[in-house]
Amino acid sequence: MKQVFVKRGQITVEDVPVPQCSDNFILVQNKNSLISSGTELSVVKSSKEKISKKAKTKTLASILKKAQKVGPAYTLKEIQGRVEQLGNLGYSSSGIVVQTGKNVKEFSVGDKVACGGAGFATHSEFACVPKNLAVKIPKNVSFEEAAFATVGSIAMHGVRRSQTQIGETVAVIGLGLLGQLTVQILKASGINVIGIDLDKNRVRLSEKFGAKGFEVKKGIEEKINKLTKMGCDSVIISASGKTNSPINLAGKIARKKAKIIVLGHVGLDIDRGISYAKELDIISSRAYGPGRYDQEYELKGTDYPVSYVRWTAQRNMESFLQLVADKKINVKSLTSNIFSLKDVEKAYKNLTDKNSLSVLFKYSEKKLEKKDFTVKISERKKTKSGKINIGLIGPGHFFKVIHSSNIFNIKNFSVESVADVDGKNSKEIAKQFNARTATTDYKNVLENKNVDLVFIATRPDMHTEIAVEALKKGKHVFVEKPVSLNEKEFHKFVKEKNRHSELVCMIGQNKRYAPFSRKIKQFFGSDDKPWMIDYKLNILPQDTKHWVYDSEIGGGRVLSEMIHHYDLFSYFTESKPVQIEAFGAGMLEEKATDDNVVTVLKYENGSVATLRCTNLGAESIVKERMEASKQGKTVQMHDYKILQLYDGFYRKEIRLANQDKGHYQELIDLKNALLGKISIEQNLEDALQATETAFKVRKQIRKLF
Q1: pTM, rounded to two decimals
Q2: Suppose 316 and one of 153, 442, 455, 555 were both cysteines; which one would form an S-S bond, judging by CB atoms 3.0 to 4.6 Å apart?
């Protein structure tokens, strides 16, 4: 399918695979999508910034701290991985449902719908949209009109935040697309409206919709206060710019105890004398309403009960379209032109005209076929013998920063196909590796006869399912940790692996492959003497709404972080744990306990290992510190950059310029195992043991609360 993207300020149309329809989503064949003059152009402008300029958003100090901890090479790759990519455009569209997810009961194939959400309702021939960000289109509303539903819901939510009542007076500052829609919604609600803008043409347009218009000129405050006699009951700011002029103008024309609602991106440094004297309420209005940016609402399809949340994002979209259907809002007069994707440059150029508030894209009729979920990237000849053909599944940010360059640098690896739910990401990665195909359906990778190794880098909730299917297809498997999120999945994986002992399988427990890990083991020697290991893990606090804490997606920090160290302890001691004790650091929330855990492990050979993980420490302290002792020797390791070796009075220190946690050597060993040069079966056994240990630790800490 064709989709519009932006990169470094350049608009482009790319052929990408049609997105897969997830469980709580609908797949929509777009008829129209809206390009707004404010949001769209600001995104394009932002994309022109260089990496160095974008990096400043993290501040130079934070970048230097990162580079000091992990090294400049890793830091640069992380910054590049975040900004060197195609950007989606579009967030408001309309079309016809062509597929529904298994949990979707509200929509059926053939329904006419309006869709919302940046990254979802894109400028593309097909869009995969959360069911809670889509609404059915009323019968007498066209696709062109319905494409305004998302922008209309933003205006609708702003009006609701003002809590305006019939007969009150509301001023709207900034009469672009959002401002004009706000004016019309207010008039439809029985409100007296004042429209304010620098542009006289926009002021005149607001007057056609029933507003009393004012250009921003000297004396405007006196004129408005004379008109209202007491000042405005509310002021809604839909202007955009860094200046504080809109917020201060709002304060001057507002009555005492009025509300100022901020929709646009403006300066908020209001004159305190005005805001204090009038005791003004300054209120932000976020997007389309409750539910937007809430993963439970958007991704999992959980709606808010109407008795508690009357107006969600979806219900705001419905309400707006009903006003359009009732002819109380006119959106046609706000559109300057309609373009096809072949005229994409003309469309965005049209928006630079100050009189243009919005334009629409229209899409041609196209029947959805199975082949549309895959696009060809390369017509290269058959891979030479000795090459290991890889099928990449789910290569996200971590893959781009960590694994991508390593696979490039291992000459025996050749990427055959790339699968990702994000079609543009799938295509970009496939182009980088000169792969034959890019797809949004991972099953196409598993069916590909040329694929030898399936490389699974998705979020953890898909690990077991894909790994098991890959084994059934006779493919070797590399799967990022954890291999499973629960014991039922885990036993399913183990059972399938046992059926295919001839296949090489590796779980991404990379720390045993780190040069310092191997140096430590070499220093102590391989025997059955006991180790005493003390490992400190200082992690940064995360928002508990982050996917890593979701038991159905990420599994928590025990499975995402600490599992590495349980595997590392097995590598060092060459022994199995016989006793496991774990304690959470007094947090009452289940998700929080996973961040602050002490684990004590006793091994068959008498070794004892302690892992202390916390997010309560100072950020300036290194993330990982280890001290291990055995038979009169001691090692101290600091963040995989500094290693100190002690043997009696002997002392040696080794330093690395860049942190090395073993990701490259991990893939070297995988390659050698696939070529039959070494066996990594013990590594797999240890990784499985580490997974079982993580399950036991998680159970123990959650029983305490």
Answers
A1: 0.87
A2: 153
